[in-house]
Amino acid sequence: MRIMRRPALAAARPRRFQPVARGSWLMLGGAFAAFALSVGVMQSYTVYLIVFVQSFGWSRAETSLPYSVSQLVMGATSPLVGALVDRLGPRRLVLLGGGLMTLGLAAAAATSALWHVTLSYGVVTTLGANCLGLVVFVPLLSRRFVRQRGTAIAIVQSANGIGRAAAMPVAAFAISLIGWRASYLAQGALVAALALPLAGFFRGAERPAAAPAGEAAAPPPAAAAAGWTLGEAVGTPHFWLLFAVYLFTGLGSFIVSLHQLAFAVGQGFDKFYAAEVLGIGAFLSTFGIILTGTASDYLGRELSAILAYGVSIAGIVCALFISGPQQGWLLWLHACLFGLTWGARGPAITAKTADLFPGPRLGTILGVITLGSGLGAAGGSWAAGFIFDLSGSYRIAFLLSIAFYVCGVAAFWALRRPPVRRAPAAR
Predict the structure, then answer these.
(1) pTM of the model
(2) CATH class for the region spanning 21-200+227-413
């Protein structure tokens, strides 16, 4: 008599959430801390913008130039950083980035001309910050959190909120206490002290993740095993749609974010009060990013991202109705709604990239697509200052932000179906 054996339940019904090795969680924590440090240093420029206008008499467009160059460099160097992390691993990239950020911040303390801060902050510090950014960590986390990819990416991207929330009030307080030059030196010393401990989180990152005790390692999906190359990805419309999503999102976000504090001060709000309000709003993005990233694993990448776009637009509409300091409640609404969803589209967009183009060259592919984000962020941050210099108001810039977000929604919605991989030509 033949005995039929029932297949194991785990094999018949693969669970959506698998246990993750302890080392992977440590790497996720290290990525969170490194990215928070990177964002905090870079976003503190929103405070230095006001200081430079007052100290050197530069126009808003001129003072926005270092930040615009920074975002352009961030995007332009992302393919290089993505290729380096595929070859060298995240630990060496964190050490390299910490050294460059320390050098750039020390040089920024000696600024006496616009080109000085453009080179020190816009180029050197930015290149270092990019080595502590998402292009470095997303490929690693995508491999180690396959079934929880959206959630893992959301957790590390939520560090954006921590960094931005601390950047404005801490920088404003430090500048009032010790001056802006000494404040730059203090930032450089902090980065130098933290770079080596942060790099220690990524020892063994190049090795495949070990399965937790009692668990068999899940076999890689067929698509991931084969892997996409950059050339194959570029040949799909999905690559260019993702590029457009990054571009329009960068334009819509940075045409507002860099000038939020300057806008509030121009409306009559006290600088320290406005920095606190905007800092609290930025902190909310920690929760918004995690919520959106987790929702993308359940509701789908497209729907979760579109919801985030809608909340951001509502926040910008609130800013359009602010006419004076008596409307503090509108400033709070603007800060909370725009802050809640700042970067909240990131997990869905980044996880979508990993969904569409999995494989060992994900870092390179993501780096090239991120060029769109750099171009958008650079154009948006400079355009807002230029528009203010021409019109004396940020109103047109904020209206453009809404239009760019709508374009981002349209491009992301077009990514619903996966790309079709071309079969190699027969010989």
Answers:
(1) 0.67
(2) mainly alpha
